[in-house]
Amino acid sequence: MRKLKITFNSPMVLLFVMGCFLAMILNYVTFGKSNQAFFMTYHSPLKNPMTWVRLFTHVLGHSGWVHFIGNMSYILLLGPMLEEKYGSFKILEVILATAFVTGLVHYLFFRNEGLCGASGVVFAFILLTSFTSFRDGELPVTVILVALIYIGQQVYEGLFLRDDVSNLSHIIGGLVGAVIGYHMNRTRD
């Protein structure tokens, strides 16, 4: 009988999840002050260097354990498959692009609200996953269905539900994942 060995697969996804976990612990022990200082984007002066840092780091912060566990479950489910297909550097690019675009849109259009969480990255991963069997010149039905279901749900919830969920960030994250997925796969065999 072979001995079971634990492997450190998907280093970028695991590093991202660990960063989110550490940000969650820090937020817990500082009673929310660390999220406000480092892991939440909101309208602040562009001269402040932290404004630019938070455009990226807001994806590490989460509002609570339920928020954290929900996002990390999807990231740990989808991320390793994506990292195996595209590589660690491309996954980092997806995370950074999603963070920047969602953070920038939020900064420009929601002056009185803060944004934190990896939900945009989750939706980028969901749409990116649907492109894993994409070939140049083809648009798989699964891509269309995933986009309609996930983005349609977010549009519906954004229009008819009043909660603290940033549905626009989910939509933007999904669009970022779709655009990156299309471009990464149209040149592959």
Summarize the helices and strands and which ones pair or pack.
Elements: H1 11-29, H2 33-38, H3 49-57, H4 65-86, H5 88-109, H6 119-130, H7 141-160, H8 167-186
Mean pLDDT: 87
What fraction of residues sit in β-strands? under 5%
CATH topology: Rhomboid-like fold
| SS elements, strand count | 0
Please tell me the CATH architecture by its name.
Up-down Bundle
Number of helical regions: 8
Give me the secondary-structure category.
mainly alpha
Question: Which regions are unreliable across 5 or more consecutive residues at pLDDT < 50?
Answer: none
Please, could you describe this protein's structure?
The structure is a single chain. The chain is globular, with a radius of gyration of 17 Å. Helix 3 crosses helix 5 (88-109). It has helices at 11-29, 33-38, 49-57, 65-86, 88-109, 119-130, 141-160, 167-186. The protein is built from eight helices and no strands. By secondary structure, it is mainly α. It has a single domain (11-186), classed as Up-down Bundle (Rhomboid-like fold), CATH 1.20.1540.
Short summary:
It is built from eight helices and no strands.
Keyword list:
mainly alpha; 69% helix; 0% strand; 8 helices; Rhomboid-like fold; 189 residues
